[in-house]
Amino acid sequence: MNRLTLVLGGARSGKSRFALEQGEALGGEKIFIATAKPTDEEMARRIERHRRERPEGWKTVEAPVRLAEALQSLEGKGDVVVIDCFTLWLSNLLTAFDEEEEKVLGEIDRLMKVARSVSLSIIAVSNEVGMGIVPTDHFLSRLFRDLSGTLHQKWAAEADEVYWVMAGIAVPIKRKGHEKNSIGH
């Protein structure tokens, strides 16, 4: 069965914990796709803390750039996938593709196509970065914010469920079959 979920929130809001809890509740073989790269000591400590917080039984796949390929390779090897997180993946793509927007957008489109084609329940975690001020000091900051918003909108449009997490509390924004709960309906 193919099922997409998006878990959005700010830094240290409880997004990852909520995503893992959702994955645990679904049952079956579980896979965690990590997009972080240990670029410095602090990031290495974060990665290690996340590893320790993961429940037993989760396999880990590292995919800092080639997320669509990693997801496709998991077809038939698991039931539930948690991707943590989209914003780190976008940062990695911007670096890998020398800040070329069209190449990053192409990767987003490839990811969307693969995500809907595999028989997996996929829970994607991402930081909401579009609620702050518009960065005026640097092109890359604005591009990152815009690409994050684009990815979030595309995934949310396809998703069966979308949650906003703040202070450790998950608020459903979209649940297929419960559209009347959405804002504006």
The end-to-end span amounts to 28 Å
State the strand order across the main sheet: 3-2-4-5-1-6-7
- The outline comes out as globular
Number of domains: 1
CATH arch. level architecture: 3-Layer(aba) Sandwich
Helix content: 40-55%
**What is the average per-residue confidence, as pLDDT, rounded to a whole number?**
91
Report the strand count: 7
Radius of gyration (Å): 16 Å
The helix-strand sequence is: EHEHEHEHHEHEE
Poorly predicted runs: 180-185
Q: By CATH's scheme, which homologous superfamily applies? A: P-loop containing nucleotide triphosphate hydrolases
Instruction: Give the number of helices.
Output: 6
User: Which structural class should the secondary elements be placed in?
Assistant: alpha/beta
What is the third-level CATH name, the topology? Rossmann fold
Sketch the major β-sheet.
Answer: 7 strands, mixed
The proportion of residues in beta strands is: 15-25%
CATH class: Alpha Beta
What does it look like?
- It is a single chain.
- It contains six helices and seven strands.
- The protein has a single domain (3-174), classed as Rossmann fold (3-Layer(aba) Sandwich).
- The protein has a seven-stranded mixed sheet with strand order 3-2-4-5-1-6-7, sandwiched between helices.
- α3 runs parallel beside α5, α4 crosses α6 and α5 runs parallel beside α6.
- The chain has 185 residues and is α/β, with parallel strands linked by helices.
- 43% of the residues lie in helices and 23% in strands.
